[in-house]
Design a protein that fits this description.
By secondary structure, this protein is of the alpha+beta class. The protein is built from nine helices and four strands, in the order E-H-E-E-E-H-H-H-H-H-H-H-H. The chain is elongated, with a radius of gyration of 18 Å. It starts with 7 loop residues before the first strand and ends with a helix.
């Protein structure tokens, strides 16, 4: 199994050619593919890393996986998330959880169920990224790049937070609404809609939520 190696670069902003060349060398030599993140410090220094441990990092370059587009979120399916991928996005999860008052374990449960912690995941219905956000929902929450893990997790956390308020913190209804849409839950008298996918989805997430609470 390939290991994710944490690498970071510090190069001057005035030398973009060096940035690109360094990244190419990284991608060629790295035993595992990895997205590259960057931020520019106040002194103009550009920081690059495949492990975005600082909240200032944003997606700089996406490197291809063996299967860059994966269909997920099939009825009843829960994707197995590796510990490596879970750890990879833990900083963004904690940041979004704190900002929108959502338990990190709940965000992780949704991500694990929706995408298996695969930021490149795309469902047959067009949902994208870690939290499988639909384009209309992305617009509602100002998510401009659904493949950017930080933006995707933030948008999903905002949506969950709004659903919590709408359904008085009834977690089962919140998850049903996340899967089927809030209007579907409301139309069915604030009950879980009788859709096979949603009926299976809610207990799957609840089970993952319990697991992550205990970790």
């Amino acid at each position: 199994m390939s290991k994710n190696i944490a690498l970071a670069f510090r190069v001057m902003k005035a030398k973009p050619t060096i940035i690109s060349f360094s990244l190419i060398l990284l991608l060629i030599s790295s035993p595992a593919w990895a997205d590259i993140y960057s931020f520019t410090a106040a002194d103009g220094t550009v920081h690059l890393s495949n492990v975005p441990s600082d909240g200032r990092y944003t997606l700089y370059m996406r490197t291809p996986s063996e299967n860059p587009t994966v269909s997920v979120n099939k009825p009843g399916r829960v994707n197995t998330a590796s510990a490596e991928n879970r750890q990879r996005y833990s900083h963004f999860v904690k940041q979004a959880a704190q900002t929108y008052n959502i338990e990190p374990a709940l965000l992780e449960a949704v991500i694990a169920t929706e995408s298996g912690f695969n930021s490149n995941a795309v469902s047959p219905k067009g949902a994208v990224g870690l939290m499988q956000i639909m384009p209309d929902t992305a617009k509602r929450y100002g998510v401009s790049n659904l493949y950017d893990p930080m933006q995707n997790i933030s948008g999903g956390a905002q949506y969950l937070s709004d659903l919590m308020q709408l359904f008085n913190n009834d977690l089962k209804l919140v998850l049903a609404a996340y899967n089927a849409g809030e209007n579907a839950v409301i139309r069915h008298g604030n009950r879980i809609p009788p859709y096979n996918e949603t009926i299976r989805y809610v207990p799957k997430v609840m089970g993952a939520y319990t697991k992550y609470q205990q970790m």
